[in-house]
């Protein structure tokens, strides 16, 4: 019995002494370091865009020529008059463009927007038929335009998938006025509308959001200004020609951009490398 107890005690002592020795030779695998991610390289890419907007335009006054005959009936003297007021209603437009994203912070594009017809109304005051009595006349027309711009944008960084931006554009607009006429029943006043090219510029601000790794939703505000020009022609029964003082437009815009290649800022980060865990031997 004592021999058995003695053997058990010796076995326990041996296990206690040799356990740490064997444990020291066992490898302890440390947890692998986290993978290192990096964004795709800043490589430019071509994109196309489509936009729709609602805009409200203001006409900066309308001036027109008048003609009077002196008492000897030998000289026609031109004069200038202005509309009492001029209002241009809101309207819609459709646009398209092609652009190039240079890097994460700069892109540029060429855009064309067609403004569907907006209603115009105004009023003039003058004399008719040699009478000294002043008579008011209502004026109606419609305006449409094709706006062509070369634009540049500064993207201000991406926050939770949203990229705010500011931009500016310069170009031209082809403005078309329909016939200007008095809508009063029985009125005969009609002046043919004019169409012409004019200088234009725009200022933009908005934000974009990644829908997929290639499709971006774009929403924003654009202020555009078209310089003044000829609005209607001369008519022997009334007056003219007439000139608008310029068209300022406030636009609320929305659209989509599709980028064909390069990094548009929407691609998910890629794993640069995945460190392998290495066994570490403790002593």
UniProtKB/TrEMBL annotation:
Pfam families: OMP_b-brl (PF13505). Keywords: Signal. Residues 41-260 form the Outer membrane protein beta-barrel domain. This is Opacity protein-like surface antigen. InterPro entries: Beta-barrel_OMP, OMP/PagP_B-barrel. It comes from Mesorhizobium sangaii. Residues 1-23 form the signal peptide.
């Amino acid at each position: 019995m004592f021999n058995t107890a003695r053997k058990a005690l010796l076995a326990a002592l041996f296990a206690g002494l040799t356990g740490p020795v064997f444990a020291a030779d066992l490898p302890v695998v440390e947890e692998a370091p986290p993978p290192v991610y990096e964004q795709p390289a800043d490589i430019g890419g071509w994109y196309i865009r489509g936009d729709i907007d609602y805009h409200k335009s203001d006409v900066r006054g309308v001036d027109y020529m008048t003609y009077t005959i002196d008492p000897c009936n030998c000289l026609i003297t031109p004069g200038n008059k202005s509309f009492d007021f001029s209002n241009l209603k809101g309207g819609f437009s459709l646009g398209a463009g092609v652009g190039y994203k240079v890097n994460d912070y700069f892109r540029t594009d060429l855009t064309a927007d067609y403004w569907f017809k907006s209603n115009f109304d105004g009023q003039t005051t003058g004399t008719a038929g040699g009478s000294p009595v002043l008579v008011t006349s209502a004026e109606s027309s419609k305006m449409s335009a094709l706006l062509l711009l070369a634009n540049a944008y500064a993207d201000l960084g991406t926050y939770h998938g949203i990229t705010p931006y500011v931009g500016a554009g310069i170009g031209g607009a082809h403005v078309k006025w329909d016939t200007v006429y008095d809508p009063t029943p029985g009125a005969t006043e009609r002046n043919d509308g004019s169409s012409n090219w004019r200088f234009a510029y725009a200022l933009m601000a908005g934000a974009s959001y990644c829908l997929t790794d290639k499709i971006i939703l774009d929403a924003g505000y654009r202020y555009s200004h078209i310089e003044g020009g000829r609005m209607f022609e001369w008519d022997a029964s009334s007056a003219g020609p007439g000139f608008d003082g310029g068209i300022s437009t406030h636009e609320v815009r929305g659209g989509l951009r599709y980028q064909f290649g390069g990094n548009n800022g929407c691609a998910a980060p890629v794993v640069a490398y995945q460190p392998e865990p290495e066994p570490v031997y403790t002593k």
